[in-house]
Write a structure and sequence with these properties.
homodimer, 3 domains, 9 strands, about 325 residues, about 15% strand, Rossmann fold, two-stranded antiparallel sheet
Amino acid sequence: MELVNQALSGNRRAMARLISQVENDNSLAAATRATIYAHTGRARVIGVTGAPGTGKSTLVCELAKAYRHAGQMVGIIAVDPTSPFTGGAILGDRIRMRDLAGDPGVFIRSMATRGNLGGLARATADVTQILDAAGYDVILVETVGAGQSEVDIARAADTTLVVEAPGLGDEVQAIKAGILEIADVLVVNKADRDGAANAVRALQAMLDLGATPRTVSHHGVTMTVGVPVSAHSDSASDWRPPILQTVALEGKGITKVVDAIARHQAYLAESDEGETRRRARIKAELEAILRETLLRRLMKNLAPADLAKTVDRIAAREIDPHTAAKELLARLP
Amino acid sequence: MELVNQALSGNRRAMARLISQVENDNSLAAATRATIYAHTGRARVIGVTGAPGTGKSTLVCELAKAYRHAGQMVGIIAVDPTSPFTGGAILGDRIRMRDLAGDPGVFIRSMATRGNLGGLARATADVTQILDAAGYDVILVETVGAGQSEVDIARAADTTLVVEAPGLGDEVQAIKAGILEIADVLVVNKADRDGAANAVRALQAMLDLGATPRTVSHHGVTMTVGVPVSAHSDSASDWRPPILQTVALEGKGITKVVDAIARHQAYLAESDEGETRRRARIKAELEAILRETLLRRLMKNLAPADLAKTVDRIAAREIDPHTAAKELLARLP
């Protein structure tokens, strides 16, 4: 537990090693998680999500600088293959990140996708907890904002920013119908571009409208339209997401975003919503762990040849995957 | 099983009802799945993935028309909140879709995100199987191409098209590092725009380079860079993705895409790769089912009050989620 104590006191090398330990889920991971968890609950987790091209990485960078300026320790977790934090970057971005990377009060971690469904959200939760326990005040989680895992990750944040930008084409506008549901603060970045006012108006109209799913029949084909990627929507909220304009590249509008985040966090603290979200998040995390643990236990009890044979039979269409799953489960002691 | 027989003979109403049945996972679902599954394995599943703004829905539309022209039955599954098939559309797109929607040889289904991790990939697999069994020759699955669930869904395809477009900004270019790994065919759509040749060259260079993950230390911060969203990458492939240019809005270049898909499918049939992918897909589906089934069984055996109490203790930081999961499992008979 020496390593854990070092990490808790903010030693960066120890934190990095701890993260690897938990990611690899080795024999020490359980004890590590248990010790770490008792020290969590202080950090504010802020999700920043948006399509590629909206400049959300630059916004994350500027928010990090603002919080640093206020003396806060800042963690950045990039769950986005397009993020400069993840290396999918152009030179200009990397140069901007350099100010942060040299700052001992900033810890940056990019999450690799592991190829297994759900692993990403859980790994992100683990890293968030380690940063939280290590004394980071603000944790910025950047996701690409399209895709279910990303929505699940955004849902794990206390406050979720959805970033838009003008002039990304009509199809991009359409993404809002789904993503609006998870927004606590809406940011129109690149607001010096043509169309910024239009983007704000469109968002305003969408907020007024509300995004309710409906099924329409369209020339004999039934389609579900405007399905919200509902995350926080289960609890009716009194919070109306403010719409803010920024030019992150020039640092413009950042203070207003920081203020809006602070107001939202005050709202969470005063209303029931903070508590409701926290419980929903815990329940989801618990279920994800149970799912993985149960599968791992099952796999341990199965002979590899049994599994291969089952796959053969499914491939030959002798049995469907659901019935095969039942058979495998029935064979357990 | 009357409904199943009707669906197998291609009755659209029966298919729609069957899909609902399987989605709601009601008491009939198990028998339905088992019957359906025996009739699957004929359809070619083609994933079409790309960022918003690349025009992939229009490409899907044109591919569907081309296959229809060749006398094939076409299923379209849209797993993308920005897709016009899902209703997140502008008028022009909807008008283009109308030709398809009125065609009895085309079945369109949009998938709602359900809010639970993993559900989307499984539901998509179920719908694919129903369309396959109902005699649809080609199933086009459209995903937004960013996000882990979407990658998992793309992985379930026999052939995956990755769609790019010129002039979507530098950040969009960066997405390729991750997404290239799952591409069997690369399409630069909107090729009449400035920058198309550049986009092709950039893709070419990236293919030459290969996308290998590497860890770099950058001003004391360790980052993993260029992490591939590895899907098919576990099996070294002799297939080099062709890069094709299209102007889907004008129907240009579609024939070449259809040809490339056919060549890839011939390659899959001749090499081991088709079989390897099919087995990997079956194994992933089986594991996903096992995970959900195991969790559901566990939840049935737990008193709701027990679960609520566990959430309370986690919220109070008395226990971490992993240890709590272990406790819940230990309590089982």
